[in-house]
Design a protein that fits this description.
Helices cover 45% and strands 18% of the residues. The protein has 281 residues and is an alpha/beta fold. The protein is globular and about 60 Å long. The structure holds adenosine monophosphate, zinc ion (ZN) and fe (iii) ion (2 copies).
């Protein structure tokens, strides 16, 4: 049987693996297909595609967009994106500027709280256009201000903690449209983490294509619940490990294994959409 892992980060956002390291780990995990879903970035896709081609692994270009609906934050995964789509790239560039200025704001707050973290150290460590809170946390560990990432999040960075800064986000309806106009499928990431069940019907009405039923932080009961919801709304079922590199000494990639038949269904949906738009022309 073939398996896919459709939720993976590289060092072009807050993952620690380079594109080539990610594909090496995917091979070790015995995966037939992977998707890269960096936060607000598609920059790694070209290198991951090349590395996948060299080992005959299937690759799906993707991204994870931070969006909101009715004041609820949600993460929207885009799959089979045209990574050269002009509007997508323009919007992503805007999200990245927001992320960069948010780093300045978070570090300023950390400084006000008496911890002299240098913003340059965060940007140097992040070394990408799409920095996030994990980079701040890692820079704090590196400088010896906290013992580990958990402490950085618990004391400073978690929602509601003193250095947490909200970021302005694209509306979920616009994010779905952005993904669609870039030729992609729009999928709600880890619904069990964001408590977003109540907004699923509205997003389905707006054309959302699927939900991520299988995720590292979903219990078996949660996955079953989302499989039922997917069935009820005729949604695609996706899944992935949300690997950001090594976790407790092991790579997370491949720990969530999506049966390949779900990838087939995703491709069928894309092909139906292409056929429908060709017929409409
Ligand atoms: P950001 O996009 O800057 O808001 O950062 C979100 C990312 O931070 C998530 O994708 C996770 O990788 C990570 N993250 C969020 N909460 C925690 C936490 N409590 N501990 C460790 N990492 C976290
Ligand atoms: Zn992340
Ligand atoms: Fe996420
Ligand atoms: Fe993620």
């Amino acid at each position: 049987m073939k398996f896919a892992d459709l939720h993976l980060h590289t060092n072009f956002s807050d993952g620690t693996f380079t594109p080539e390291e990610l594909v090496f780990q995917a091979q070790k995990a015995g995966l037939a297909c992977i998707a890269v879903t960096d936060h607000d970035s598609v920059e790694a896709c070209a290198r991951v595609a090349a590395a996948c081609a060299s080992v005959k692994m299937e690759f799906i270009p993707g991204a994870e967009l931070t969006a909101e609906y009715d004041d609820t934050e949600l993460h929207l995964l885009g799959y089979f994106l045209d990574t050269h789509n002009e509007k997508l790239l323009t919007e992503i560039a805007r999200f990245q500027v927001v992320r960069q200025s948010r780093i300045h704001e978070m570090v300023a707050r950390i400084n006000e709280l008496g911890t002299p973290l240098q913003v340059e150290s965060v940007f140097a460590l992040a070394n990408c256009k799409s920095p996030g809170r994990p980079h701040v946390a890692r820079a704090m560990v590196k400088a010896g201000f906290v013992k580990n990432l958990d402490e950085a999040f618990e004391r400073f960075l978690k929602k509601g903690r003193p250095a947490w800064v909200p970021k302005s986000k694209i509306s979920a309806l616009e994010a779905i449209e952005l993904v669609h106009q870039a030729g992609g499928l729009a999928v709600m990431a880890h619904p069990g983490l964001n408590r977003t069940d109540n907004i699923i019907p509205a997003l389905v009405a707006a054309g959302m294509d699927g939900i991520e039923c299988f995720h590292t932080k979903h219990s078996t009961a949660m996955s079953e619940r989302y499989l039922e919801i997917a069935d009820k709304h005729h949604l695609l079922v996706t899944g992935g490990s949300d690997c950001h590199g090594f976790s407790k000494g092991k790579p997370l990639i491949g720990t969530v294994r999506l049966p390949y038949e779900h990838v087939e269904r995703m491709k069928e949906r894309i092909n139906r959409r292409i056929a429908a738009s060709a017929a409409g022309r």
